[in-house]
């Protein structure tokens, strides 16, 4: 009854207000896009004067008269013109949505008793408050976007520096290998010159033997002529005397061998060159390999866990290198967008990016897991994809009640190992490989994954049970 009486009074005032007012022709050309139009004008649109919250219709001055003069409409509630009037009233009570429930985040009317006791504000105040918050968020997002743009610019510049630096090193490397190739060519020429010297020496020796054989041939032919002359002697005495004289001066009929054997000498050259080449090749390859490995190892980062990502049931100690599950003790860490809220995980502050990286971690307790993932992993979700064992951009090793396993994309692979106290993790970002090693004693490969990395990788630990520990070991 109170509502009905109030509506009647308001409509009566509206009726008196417009009674006796001289009606002038309406200039329809003055309509603006933001005006509310009369829903009853069929031929041409007219500006609405009032909206009826009961009829959910807006009326111009002419079509409003029944609501002002007819008693049947006295209980209808008239308000200033509203756009989308059917969206501006409560579906349950058909009253204006005048308040905003800050608790449930929805617009309500004054008769919505289910929101009684909740913090509310007028829709205007709520909008002002929310717009202020949105403005702050927009400023923060703009600042982050600007920071991201600056970081992108720095990354592009860094990429150019990397490319130019690598090209400079490539030029130096090519120069050094050219020197090495020149040295090899000089060594080759030295060996070939020595062999050619051996050839000249052998040929000169052969020429000397040939000349000696020619001389011996002449002497032998002379002997043949004298022997023929002896056979023509008529007297036996003459024959015997001439034979005796010829025999005294007869030339040696033995001839030197016509072949000069240098096989053993040349085989020595082959052996020396072959052995030296093999030794030099092994020395060159092993020297470069060992030296480059030392350079890569010396570039290894000392990783630490990022406190802003650490779940509230986890504690970081020892210069943020030791992570422990302290359940059921929960730490009062401040809220942070990067903090894990459901899965008890933590990421390292630095990433494994551009190059080859090797780190070692110590695992303790059934439920300790460690691996790598992208920074974009969901920090607030409860689905398995928010855990390093359940998505296709994470790779990890851990232990459960059945033993040790590796996980990737939700696929669990058993490892044939009794225990792993120290785990080795090797990432070759360029080649796209993640390898896990048992580094407890003799280094042994456990599992190797191949992938096309599209983001930097962060070492991540998931400690599912109380007293689980993961410790990041710094290389000395």
UniProtKB/TrEMBL annotation:
<keyword id="KW-0863">Zinc-finger</keyword>
<feature type="domain" description="B30.2/SPRY">
    <location>
        <begin position="283"/>
        <end position="476"/>
    </location>
</feature>
<dbReference type="Pfam" id="PF13765">
    <property type="entry name" value="PRY"/>
</dbReference>
<dbReference type="InterPro" id="IPR003877">
    <property type="entry name" value="SPRY_dom"/>
</dbReference>
<dbReference type="GO" id="GO:0005737">
    <property type="term" value="C:cytoplasm"/>
</dbReference>
<dbReference type="InterPro" id="IPR043136">
    <property type="entry name" value="B30.2/SPRY_sf"/>
</dbReference>
<dbReference type="InterPro" id="IPR003879">
    <property type="entry name" value="Butyrophylin_SPRY"/>
</dbReference>
<keyword id="KW-0175">Coiled coil</keyword>
<dbReference type="InterPro" id="IPR013320">
    <property type="entry name" value="ConA-like_dom_sf"/>
</dbReference>
<protein>
    <submittedName>
        <fullName>Tripartite motif-containing protein 16</fullName>
    </submittedName>
</protein>
<feature type="region of interest" description="Disordered">
    <location>
        <begin position="1"/>
        <end position="27"/>
    </location>
</feature>
<dbReference type="InterPro" id="IPR001870">
    <property type="entry name" value="B30.2/SPRY"/>
</dbReference>
<feature type="coiled-coil region">
    <location>
        <begin position="203"/>
        <end position="230"/>
    </location>
</feature>
<dbReference type="Pfam" id="PF00622">
    <property type="entry name" value="SPRY"/>
</dbReference>
<keyword id="KW-0862">Zinc</keyword>
<keyword id="KW-0479">Metal-binding</keyword>
<dbReference type="InterPro" id="IPR051051">
    <property type="entry name" value="E3_ubiq-ligase_TRIM/RNF"/>
</dbReference>
<dbReference type="InterPro" id="IPR000315">
    <property type="entry name" value="Znf_B-box"/>
</dbReference>
<feature type="compositionally biased region" description="Basic and acidic residues">
    <location>
        <begin position="10"/>
        <end position="27"/>
    </location>
</feature>
<dbReference type="Pfam" id="PF25600">
    <property type="entry name" value="TRIM_CC"/>
</dbReference>
<dbReference type="Pfam" id="PF00643">
    <property type="entry name" value="zf-B_box"/>
</dbReference>
<dbReference type="InterPro" id="IPR006574">
    <property type="entry name" value="PRY"/>
</dbReference>
<dbReference type="GO" id="GO:0008270">
    <property type="term" value="F:zinc ion binding"/>
</dbReference>
<dbReference type="InterPro" id="IPR058030">
    <property type="entry name" value="TRIM8/14/16/25/29/45/65_CC"/>
</dbReference>
């Amino acid at each position: 009854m109170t509502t009905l009486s109030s509506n009647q009074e308001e409509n009566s005032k509206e009726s008196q207000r417009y009674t006796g007012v001289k009606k002038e022709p309406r200039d329809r050309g003055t309509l603006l896009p933001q005006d509310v139009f009369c829903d009853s004008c069929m031929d041409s649109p007219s500006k609405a004067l009032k909206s009826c919250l009961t009829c959910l219709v807006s009326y111009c001055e002419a079509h409003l008269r029944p609501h002002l003069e007819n008693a049947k409409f006295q209980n209808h509630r008239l308000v200033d013109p509203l756009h989308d009037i059917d969206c501006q009233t409560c579906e349950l009570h058909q009253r204006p949505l005048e308040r905003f429930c800050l608790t449930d985040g929805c617009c309500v009317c004054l008769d919505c008793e289910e929101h009684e006791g909740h913090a509310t504000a007028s829709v205007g105040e709520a909008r002002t408050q929310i717009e202020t918050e949105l403005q702050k968020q927009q400023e923060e997002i703009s600042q982050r976007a600007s920071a991201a743009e600056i970081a992108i610019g720095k990354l592009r510049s860094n990429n150019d520096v990397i490319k130019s630096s690598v090209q400079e090193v490539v030029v130096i490397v090519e120069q050094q290998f050219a020197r090495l190739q020149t040295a090899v060519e000089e060594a080759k020429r030295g060996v070939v010159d020595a062999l050619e010297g051996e050839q000249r020496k052998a040929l000169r020796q052969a020429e000397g033997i040939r000349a000696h054989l020619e001389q011996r041939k002449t002497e032998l032919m002379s002997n043949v002529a004298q022997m023929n002359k002896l056979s023509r002697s008529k007297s036996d005495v003459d024959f015997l005397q001439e034979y005796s004289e010829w025999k005294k001066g007869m030339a040696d009929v033995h001839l030197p061998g016509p072949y000069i054997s240098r096989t053993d000498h040349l085989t020595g050259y082959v052996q020396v060159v072959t052995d030296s080449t093999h030794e030099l090749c092994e020395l060159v390859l092993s020297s470069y390999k060992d030296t480059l490995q030392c350079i890569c190892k010396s570039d290894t980062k000392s990783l630490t866990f990022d406190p802003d990502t650490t779940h509230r049931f986890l504690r970081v100690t020892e210069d943020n290198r030791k992570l422990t599950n302290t359940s059921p003790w929960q730490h009062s860490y401040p809220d942070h967008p990067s903090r894990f809220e459901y899965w008890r995980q933590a990421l390292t502050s630095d990433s494994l990016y551009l190059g080859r990286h090797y780190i070692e971690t110590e695992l303790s307790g059934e439920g300790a897991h460690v691996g790598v993932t992208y920074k974009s992993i969901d920090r607030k979700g409860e689905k398995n994809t928010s855990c390093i064992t359940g998505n296709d951009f994470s790779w990890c090793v851990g232990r459960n009640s059945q033993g040790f396993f590796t996980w990737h994309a939700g696929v669990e692979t058993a490892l044939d190992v009794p225990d792993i106290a120290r785990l080795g993790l090797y990432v070759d970002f360029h080649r796209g490989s993640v390898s896990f090693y048992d580094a407890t004693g003799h280094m042994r490969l456990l599992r190797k994954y191949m992938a096309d990395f599209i983001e930097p990788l962060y070492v991540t630990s998931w400690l599912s049970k109380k007293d689980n520990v993961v410790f990041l070991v710094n290389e000395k």
